[in-house]
Automatic annotation (TrEMBL):
This is Prefoldin subunit 6. Belongs to the prefoldin subunit beta family. InterPro entries: PFD_beta-like, Prefoldin. CDD domains: Prefoldin_6. It comes from Cyclostephanos tholiformis. Residues 63-90 form a coiled coil. It holds the Pfam family Prefoldin_2.
Amino acid sequence: MLTASDLGTLTAQRNENELVKQELDVCGQEASEGSDSVVYKLVGPVLIKNDLDEAKETVDKRLEFISGEIKKMESTIAKKEEQSQQLAMTVQEMQGAMQKAAVEAAKAAAMQSS
């Protein structure tokens, strides 16, 4: 079942990846100015040298995936909220009908006893 914390986790991951993308853009600018920028990626307990363009592509794909998951989750949450509202209306209608029936039953009982 989806929870608000799941949405929060995805949002935090998206924010983190956006920061990584910004840092990679800075590295790209430094590399174009002639500065030596090296990017590493963590594979298990080891840091491995990674191509800057490949790192940018990986982060872009990850951001795309996370954004898609957030959209799906928001859509699911909206559907569940709509279903919840419909159920609440149904319950209110049933309660109203029960109260009306109880009033009528009380009136009928009062008429029989008099």
